[in-house]
Amino acid sequence: MDNLGSLGSILPLVLLVVVFYFLLIRPQRKRQQEAVKMQNSLTPGTRVMTTTGLFATVVAVENEDVVLEVAPGIETRWVKAAIGRVLTPGDAPAEDEPEADTADEPVADAADEVKDETKNGDSSTKQS
After folding, report:
1. What is the pLDDT of residues 31-62, one digit of tens each?
2. What's the CA dihedral at 50, 53, 58, 62 to 10 degrees?
3. Which has the closest alpha carbon to 91: 33, 31, 47?
4. Do the beta carbons of residue 44 and residue 60 sit within 8 Å?
5. pLDDT < 50 positions in the chain
């Protein structure tokens, strides 16, 4: 009977370890393996985003280093582990998106608005 009591106190601890393994450790290992696979598959010409959010194009891959071109003629050397993800053509960075043309919109002047309010009598401030 004493053996059964000690087994009952150890069983929750064992179950806790098993749950942690399947919910935390195993998925983390899978993500690490996928990241290493992605970093090892880098080839020149690939668009990437670093873990710091820098968008660049792979120029060369040397052992554990990657040479990235961040702007035309500007190349920097990074460790492969700093590559966060490979960009697909649909994952264009925000800077590549066309900006909305705001030149056609009229710009309201604050002084004109104050003049309009005083003409209409809408001003809540007392004028001297």
Report:
1. 989 888 988 888 999 999 999 999 999 999 99
2. -30
3. 47
4. yes
5. 96-100
